[in-house]
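WARN retry 2 of 3 for item q-0093 after timeout on previous attempt; input resubmitted unchanged.
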Amino acid sequence: MKLFTKDFTFDFTRKTYIMGILNVTPDSFSDGGLFLDRENAVQQALRMQSEGADIIDIGGESTRPGAEKVSVKDEIKRVVPVIKALAE
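OK item q-0093 returned
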């Protein structure tokens, strides 16, 4: 199976890809909101990459049980600045 993106092809028949999970939410159950700050989030993503992550999943809405729903607008405000900083 292959997954094609604009700039990259993931070939799952040849490699197992490692994904790092980066929660940029104030109520994350796994990190307690440590990466809500853009610079902290960017540093964590770079650390994950240096430790072998092939993919970074940047989440802007908590999946913790009982977490409040987040509007698309708020999720974008959390996620996009981190993505832009990593793309530079």
